[in-house]
Amino acid sequence: xxxxxxxxxxxxxxxxxxxxxxxxxxxxxxxxxxxxxxxxxxxxxxxxxxxxxxxxxxxxxxxxxxxxxxxxxxxxxxxxxxxxxxxxxxxxxxxxxxxxxxxxxxxxxxxxxxxxxxxxxxxxxxxxxxxxxxxxxxxxxxxxxxxxxxxxxxxxxxxxxxxxxxxxxxxxxxxxxxxxxxxxxxxxxxxxxxxxxxxxxxxxxxxxxxxxxxxxxxxxxxxxxxxxxxxxxxxxxxxxxxxxxxxxxxxxxxxxxxxxxxxxxxxxxxxxxxxxxxxxxxxxxxxxxxxxxxxxxxxxxxxxxxx
Length: 307
Prior knowledge:
Blueprint: E1 8-17, E2 20-30, E3 35-39, H1 46-53, E4 61-66, E5 69-70, H2 75-79, E6 82-85, H3 97-107, H4 114-122, H5 136-149, E7 154-158, H6 166-181, E8 185-189, H7 193-199, E9 202-207, E10 210-215, H8 217-220, E11 225-232, E12 245-250, E13 257-263, H9 267-276, E14 279-285, H10 289-297
Parallel strand pairs: 3-8, 3-9, 6-7, 7-8
Antiparallel strand pairs: 1-2, 1-4, 4-5, 9-10, 11-13, 11-14, 12-13
């Protein structure tokens, strides 16, 4: 690996297509051995950002550096230490899956190894079939097998599990975990929030061409609310007027069983009030990535998560 603290350093990135501003202000950082989750709805700018990082398109402003090198000017050098899998893979129709994997490896300066054979078995890919006969999921497998077979410093996945069944999604997650454990860096753009939540150290949320929140899920949880289900000996009427309590729903006439959400900074006060009412049962659920995501996109019901 090239000796740089940051694998990926994107600052104030902008990209316009004519009068349309696809990217307005994108800031991303990725460290060695880190998995960065990049999420946002259709049209938010995820794929455009990735294309700039890969040197496929030139930015209109700001900077994008990979291994400390300019993503546009030094893309050829950068690609020698990078593997990329797009969300929809197009393959040479008359080649077999096996021939394609070997060709992709050869183009990356890599070779077919026992690791490649193991990946083919794990993903259960029939490499003797021609690409034109493959389903979308099998085309994804070809690209993923080639990518995971390479020994590079940075792996870029743009909706990589699109078309895969749940079992193969799990294999993908395991392989990303292995990359992380071996000190590799991963940029993962995904619409599957549970996938991002399981694998990523850091999460960046993009909306309308701007990265609006970046950090670990733990550091961002203060922005969302914990869910609480509680049963007490005495009525919980005090909750009705407590600050930070929302969506209070009493489950019985005695008002001793309730479900509600509470702001993270008010949990201490609420727990003190619950304890005074003699807690019989208590279940708290911390906010999820989906909760955080919906905080930003609850008004965009006409947009689908993903790109």
